[in-house]
């Protein structure tokens, strides 16, 4: 009996002490200060203004954050800030790593109707990150709609595995992969704004599955594979992303080309005049390529947004090979019989047309024979 009593004391008292310590920690932990620390950390990571509605404990070593609003900071006067909403975020710290002097964090984020899970580990000056995202709803990503100019539907999933020397994203190494399903562009109601022509209603374009892979080396993510061959559209992309700290400062330099299939116009007779008239529109005729695709150069940063410039030529020389100058033609000139033939001056080469879109305000209003929604569809 005495042995059982001593055993109960040896086990009971430490257990009771541990219970009291956890209970007091839950009741007295300064969660308001933690919320402020998290808010400041997010602002530094995204270079944006952050609001957090609520922060609460999650078991012993974690916290749960809900109602997060991230608003970008305008980089120039007149720029409209973009807002991102995070439904909830749960993060947990590994105690064993803390004891050993490292950092091991796991987290889960509910956003855009899907979920993002990941881990972040740091050992000394180096760190690593693994991210997996599942079924994010593209229709809820406002920045994509702003970039394309039309509603976008579909789901995207993927993963990323990166090592971060000196904890710097600009020195990252690894790979990023993504896949989409059920992608559609347009909803048959929203209008695509085309400079000089107003808005044109676009029937849904089925893109289908789009798969991409980026290989990251010393902070440069090169697009090794990006393409889709759907029912209505074929798309091919190439380029690179220069990763920067913080992430919104990362810059994009890419070239995307697409071709609308004949099946789309057969199924949507209303769109046949529009697709056939793309060659006449100033905003698209510069994008028409000899292979039937339309090409666009994509550039910008995540914070300031992306711009799409029509261009029939890819920026990579390997696609077209070395350019040879056109042959010079000599203009015949009358001369006396027997007189020496002077060298005729060469006709100067015509300057190459730029790829940039002409400003409608400078180029003047469109000609009446160019397509508009009114004379295309009779609306």
Describe the structure.
The structure is a single chain. The chain is an alpha+beta fold and 379 residues long. The protein has a domain at 150-157 and 167-317 and 358-379. It is 22% helix and 41% strand. It has helices at residues 2-28, 31-46, 95-99, 142-148, 262-267, 272-276, 282-285, 317-320, 360-363, 373-377; strands spanning 48-58, 62-72, 83-93, 103-111, 114-123, 126-137, 152-164, 173-185, 191-194, 198-201, 205-208, 210-217, 220-229, 233-242, 251-260, 294-301, 305-310. The strands form two sheets. The chain has a 15-stranded antiparallel β-sheet that branches. The termini are far apart. Residues 317-332, 334-339 and 347-379 have low confidence and may be disordered.
């Amino acid at each position: 009996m005495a042995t059982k009593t001593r055993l109960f004391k040896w086990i009971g008292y430490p257990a009771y002490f541990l219970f009291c310590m956890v209970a007091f920690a839950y009741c007295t932990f300064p969660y308001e200060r933690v919320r402020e620390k998290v808010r400041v950390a997010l602002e530094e990571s995204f270079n944006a203004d952050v609001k957090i509605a609520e922060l609460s404990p999650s078991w012993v070593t974690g916290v749960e954050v809900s109602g997060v609003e991230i608003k970008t900071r305008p980089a120039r006067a007149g720029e409209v800030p973009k807002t991102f909403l995070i439904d909830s975020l749960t993060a947990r710290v590994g105690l064993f790593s803390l004891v050993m002097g490292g950092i091991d964090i796991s987290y889960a984020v509910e956003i855009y109707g899907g979920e993002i899970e990941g881990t972040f580990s740091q050992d000394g000056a180096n760190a690593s990150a693994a991210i997996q995202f599942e079924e994010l709803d593209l229709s809820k990503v406002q920045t994509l709609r702003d970039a394309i100019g039309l509603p976008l539907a579909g789901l995207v999933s993927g993963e990323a595995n990166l090592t971060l020397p000196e904890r710097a994203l600009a020195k990252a190494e690894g790979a990023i992969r993504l896949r989409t399903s059920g992608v559609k562009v347009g909803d048959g109601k929203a209008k695509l704004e085309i400079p000089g022509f107003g808005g044109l209603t676009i029937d849904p374009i089925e893109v289908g599955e789009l798969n991409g892979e980026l290989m990251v080396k010393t902070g440069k993510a090169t697009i090794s594979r990006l393409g889709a061959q759907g029912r209505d559209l074929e798309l091919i992309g190439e380029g690179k992303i220069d990763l920067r700290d913080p992430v919104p400062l990362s810059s994009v330099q890419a070239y995307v080309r697409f071709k609308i299939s004949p099946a789309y116009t057969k199924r949507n007779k209303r769109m046949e005049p529009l697709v056939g008239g793309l060659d006449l529109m100033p905003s698209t005729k510069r994008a028409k390529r000899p292979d039937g695709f339309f090409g666009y150069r994509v550039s910008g940063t995540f914070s300031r947004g992306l711009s799409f410039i029509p261009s029939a030529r890819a920026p990579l020389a390997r696609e077209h090979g070395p350019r040879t100058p056109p042959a010079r033609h000599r203009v015949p000139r009358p001369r006396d019989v027997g007189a020496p033939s002077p060298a005729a001056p060469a006709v100067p080469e015509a300057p190459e047309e730029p790829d940039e879109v002409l400003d409608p305000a400078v180029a003047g209003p469109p000609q009446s024979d160019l397509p508009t929604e009114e004379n295309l569809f009779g609306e």
